[in-house]
Amino acid sequence: MDIRTGQDTIRFFRQLFVARAGVAPRRTKEWSIPFSGHARLSERIGEAVRKTHSYYLEQQHRDGYWWYELESNVTITAEYLMLLHFLGLQDREKDVKIANHLLQNQRSDGTWAIHWGGTGDLSTSIEAYFALKLSGLSPEEPTMRRARDFILSQGGVEASRVFTRIFLALFGEFDWRAIPSIPVEINLFPAWFPLSIYDFSSWARSTIVPLSLVLDLKPVRPLPPGKGVRELYREPHTIPPITTQKVSPFSWKGFFVLLDRIVKAMEEKPVRPLRERARKVTEKWILEHQEPTGDWGGIQPAMVNSVLALVTRGYDLSHDRVKRGLKALENFTIERKGELVLQSCISPVWDTALTTLALLSSGMDREHPVLVRACTWLAAKQIFRRGDWSIKRPDLPPGGWAFEFENSWYPDVDDTAVVLMFLNQYAGKNFVSARNLEKGLRWILGMQGRDGGWGAFDADNDMRILNYLPFGDLEAMIDPGTPDLTGRVLELLGQVKYPVESDAVRKAIRFLRKRQEKDGSWWGRWGVNYLYGTSSVLSGLHSIGEDMASAYVRRAVEWIKNIQNADGGWGECCESYNDPALKCRGMSTPSQTAWALLALIAAGEGTGAEAVKGIQYLLGQQRENGTWPEECFTGTGFPKYFMIRYHNYRNCFPLMALGKFRSLLSEKGLVR
């Protein structure tokens, strides 16, 4: 944080909790609703809101939180089965339930996709096939034959991604030499050294560190006859290349492929003086980063690979650290109708914060016991220890929130911002400490990048060449600032009346203007896709007091209005990350429609014809129990490669949009 920003912050905190007045209303152009019947529309919205309120009242856990499924693709569950088999912990009942889950998600052509409605994905299909075979399914089953035909048509196992190769190598079904190296010595590099582990994103770091130990030791658990997958190879007796892509020797990727060959040659030398020391340092890092609950990083890859690393290092299955790690994974599982599914992550803090904001926005009394319980629970989840983020921000005091129940090493900006939007409504109450709210806000401000944007878990984590590493085939090795997170922080800063003339705000707006697309939209890193990014940015700009009549804002507004579907909703497919021609094309969904409506409301277009049609779409789609149907994946883990269906998005965001629209009608005097 520079000196001027620090002075702005000091002035701000002197005033913030002395008195809390509402944000001053901003003048926006008045729009008239192009139809009669304001009162009837308001009544319909009121009925819809009451239904959803009832739903959420029933869903709240007694401790005060909400927690909904975080759905991804089947590789997460398939790898869980592989882990258990590798450890010798296979269980017939679990095998059957996991197999049922995999078969339930198989497409009619025999493939598996990375999201609902997607096309078959090679690596996902390989992992599902292998897990089914381990579970006892015959390769001659029609479903297996169809999957095998697809896999071979797409290049076979040789064309698979890195993580698929690693899981096959654990069972001797892939050659370790054809997997990119991560020399364990990398964990000895100091934080300032190029290619230190702290140059990687938090999710890559928490996965790569334990994997480096696994790749160093290269364990193999041979399979019984008939369980292997050699039939998925096009050339089973040939060692595949490190990367299947054609690589120019004069590119960064070509440089890293050459570097990998050099590293492999060094790994085969009989003397590596720092190897054992690196192993011990890596083991210590893994142990230090395990939560008391057994979790690592709050994500499946970090947890699975940390268990693998400890066992490979010689830890017995009865060791407390291993047992807790396996228990943490089990806590991520969901059982239903004969199926067992492992979630890639769990989102109770995120679900609770979004739900409370939706309930408040839709008119629930601030003193309602449901909200007070949620407030108390969220306030207690604040993290006051230093995590990996402090490597680049050593002077910044802690104070953020994480996504999960327990993840003290990795609080994130997005969760912290949304939690503070809610908790600041209760500043001065005895169950919310004003000092702790100040710490949370200071932490967010301190995490701003030098470019003015905010990333998720780290600051200035933007060494883009890391995505060219052979190991980085998911293009997710870094965590740079993004428009959606930057918009979210501005929305918070506006709500707490942070000085709009501060350097932090000016730099953020400058960042957003540089990142705007030519058509007026903004890319969405954590939600699909331009609809999510644009909604977050416009909400943030409005909140902080930016002139919503500015030319660059109007371009975004017109873009949103022009992409509305004929049914009144908005939608965007996951493939838009791969193909720009598919940008904002897709069937209407409740969550994405709500994002568009929130953007229009923020931009002063909340009672225009497009917004009214969007509201009518939401009202028409609502079920009798107050929920909305939505099969599409509208959340993003890694753009292009890992998509998420948050089961709460389809309900919390429509509720938020309906509530804000109804408040707008009241503000304009269109209804009593």
UniProtKB/TrEMBL annotation:
CDD domains: SQCY_1. Keywords: Isomerase, Repeat. InterPro entries: Hopene-cyclase, SQ_cyclase_C, SQ_cyclase_N, Squalene_cyclase, Terpene_synthase_CS, Terpenoid_cyclase/PrenylTrfase. Coiled coil: none annotated. Pathway: Secondary metabolite biosynthesis; hopanoid biosynthesis. It holds the Pfam family SQHop_cyclase_N. GO terms for cellular component: lipid droplet. Its EC number is 5.4.99.17. GO terms for biological process: triterpenoid biosynthetic process. Residues 346-662 form the Squalene cyclase C-terminal domain. Residues 50-336 form the Squalene cyclase N-terminal domain. The keyword Glycoprotein does not apply. One of its GO terms (molecular function) is squalene-hopene cyclase activity. Belongs to the terpene cyclase/mutase family. This is Squalene--hopene cyclase. The gene is shc.
